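Q: I'm writing up a methods section and want to include an example of the input and output format. Could you take the sequence below and give the corresponding predicted structure tokens, formatted cleanly so I can copy it straight into the document?
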Amino acid sequence: MNVRTARLAGALIVVAWAVVQLEGRRPRSRRAGNRGGDLEIERKFVVADVPADLGDYPGEAIEQGYLALDGDVELRVRRKDGSDSVLTVKAGKGKSRVEQEFELDAPAFESLWPFTVGRRLRKIRHRIPGEGGLTLELDSYLGWLRGLFTVEIEFPTLEASRDFQPPKWVGKEVTDDPSYKNQALAQRQGAARAKRAFRLRIDERVSVDIARIATAQIDEVLDRLEGRTDEELGKAVHESRKSLKRLRAVARLARAEIGTKDYRRANATFRDAGRRLSGARDAQVLIQAFDALAERYPAELGAARLGEFRSRLVGEYESLGGNITAGSALFVEIAGDLRKASARVEKWSFKHSGFRAVAPGLGTAYRDGRGAYRVALRDPTPEHLHDWRKRVKDLWYSVQLLEAAAPKRMDKLAGSAHKLSELLGDDHDLVVLGEHVERYRDAFPDEASAALLRGAAERRRMELQVRAFGMGDELYSKRPRAFVREVERGWRKHGGRR
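A: Here is the clean output for your methods example:
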């Protein structure tokens, strides 16, 4: 069964479910003054200038997703302000459409919402009183559609619709433009996210796809730092750092093609941006490491008096977090650097268009990781373990990019590399936590409390290292050349270019 058939089958199941569930339930009337009953008479405009007094009209948060779309017929679910939910059936186009709504309880909405993946949008709606008793519904779109404002007006009659004269702040009419229908906007947002997927496509030239992925990751960071994703600031910074790490991995994978000079410049830009965003997140990780340790060893640490030490960690986090604010000069500077980097990425040149463009980079990622594993195994110092972790992440990102070579096997390999990087990351966090124990010696009432915490951290590190070395032995069991050849065979088997 292909994807389109599967989606159609899923949509039919959803519609059948809705019919059964809503059988006998009275539809909710939204237009008592509309002589057409369930006929929606509406015009839509793009907003030219947002009214200066928009804040005087309370906003209503709306999230909606589409269950099924078939030409001019749509089935959607909508939730307002996180509670009031409806299922809506619409049919027709232009100024006059048929619309029917049914109220949904919370469980019904939650059961349907997963079917709308890739066809969702979020917006804030302000209702502005107009002349003649009309209401102008101004929608401010969120997420990847941020910056778009539209206004819709519903009319009691077609005559009223024809006679309507919009205020000066209302711009171009888009009633008959299908690209401004909410269903089209929802799909546009879904397509924007899919376009940024961190995967090389088997049917695309690798040289082209590398640039697509790199610029898409840069766009992800810009959207977050410039507030277009509606994420909490801490999460936006954390996700931005992850994208910057992916960018470094993309540059490493393509290093043999783009050349050492371009690689070093890109790597330095992405590395420095990540470091500038790291402070508050690193401090937060230490608090999480401390809490996890206390939860794992309650008997050992229950007798220690560690409250003041934890308060110092929290204070450090709050101090660093206060330096990162939305719209800060730091964000503006990083965004400027990334825009310049994006322009340079567009100029990257490649000798090869297929797998050969990334084969050397993949081999280096595996070879360096294998070497770092052996060094750490012989001498497990914090420095060697941390270096190994960075090389494991290189492999993890490279395998993610090349998933199309053998989806199941590569997905499993990526999962193993990710888990290994987490184990080594937890080990590193405990090393840093130990350094903070020394830094904040005066936070402990006695040496015994500090010793208990250090002992618990070392015990946990030993457990993590045993698991990590076991996984490393399995992950790096192949010779680098054999590993690369195996991935290349899968790539070519699935139709990828050599």
